[in-house]
């Protein structure tokens, strides 16, 4: 979807989720290399991002720290602790079994893909100051929205 101009693919996936895609839990779209103009690479394993939303709520109302300090945890330190125990000092994931391959017994569909060019995202695309500024503004807007997710009672994080 990102670079091939597959407009409408997300709409199609939503439309067919109850029939053609009824037994599909996740859809992963791989933006990969091509071996030639008519020969795509066949990807059989991916490594990348999986996003999760975590909400930590330590209290349902604002509590006076002089009375409740130390007895009720604050959301931010709890979040920091949880994130700190996910990895060791060498960045190895400490969740048991997370790095093992899992055979799910689910079917995989390999869809034939025709030749294409990247159009607007070809090798001639250049990164310039305009793209840099737009990207920085987008990141700033994202961080502004993330900042709204924290208050003294609860915190939300996208992982």
Outline:
One of its GO terms (biological process) is proteolysis. With 159 residues, this protein is α+β, with helices and mostly antiparallel strands.
Structural features:
GL11061, metal-binding, protease, two-stranded antiparallel ribbon, metal ion binding, alpha+beta, 4 helices
Gyration radius, in Å: 22 Å
Largest sheet: 2 strands, antiparallel
Q: Please identify the structural class as seen in this structure.
A: alpha+beta
Overall mean pLDDT: 69
How much beta, percentage-wise? 5-15%
Ranges where pLDDT stays below 50 over 5 or more residues in a row are 110-115
- Count the DSSP helices: 4
Distance between the termini: 22 Å
Assign a percent range to the helix content.
Answer: 25-40%
Helix/strand order: HEEEHHHE
GO biological process, one term: proteolysis
Organism: Drosophila persimilis (Fruit fly)
GO molecular function: metal ion binding; peptidase activity
Keywords: Hydrolase, Metal-binding, Protease
Please explain how this structure is put together.
With 159 residues, the protein is an alpha+beta fold. The chain has a domain at 55-107 and 117-158. It has four helices and four strands, in the order αβββαααβ. It has helices at 9-15, 65-68, 75-84, 129-147; strands at residues 34-36, 39-40, 53-57, 154-158. The chain has a two-stranded antiparallel ribbon. A hairpin with a 2-residue loop joins β1 and β2 (39-40). The longest helix has 19 residues, at 129-147. It is extended, with a radius of gyration of 22 Å. The two termini are 22 Å apart. Residues 110-115 have low confidence and may be disordered. Keywords: Hydrolase, Metal-binding, Protease. This is GL11061. One of its GO terms (molecular function) is metal ion binding. InterPro entries: Cyt/Met_Dipeptidase.
């Amino acid at each position: 979807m990102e670079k091939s101009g597959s407009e409408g693919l997300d709409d199609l996936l939503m439309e067919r989720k109850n029939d053609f895609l009824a037994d599909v839990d996740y859809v992963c779209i791989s933006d990969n290399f091509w071996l030639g103009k008519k020969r795509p690479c066949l990807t059989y394993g991916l490594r990348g991002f999986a996003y999760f939303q975590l909400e930590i709520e330590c209290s349902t109302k604002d509590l006076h720290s002089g009375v409740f300090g130390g007895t009720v945890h604050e959301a931010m330190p709890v979040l920091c602790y949880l994130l700190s125990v996910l990895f060791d000092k060498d960045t190895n994931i400490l969740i048991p079994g997370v790095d093992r391959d899992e055979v799910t017994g689910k079917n995989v569909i390999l869809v034939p893909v025709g030749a294409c060019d990247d159009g607007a995202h070809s090798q001639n695309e250049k990164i310039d100051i305009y793209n840099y500024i737009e990207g920085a503004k987008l990141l700033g807007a994202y961080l502004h929205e993330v900042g709204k997710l924290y208050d003294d009672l609860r915190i939300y994080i996208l992982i």
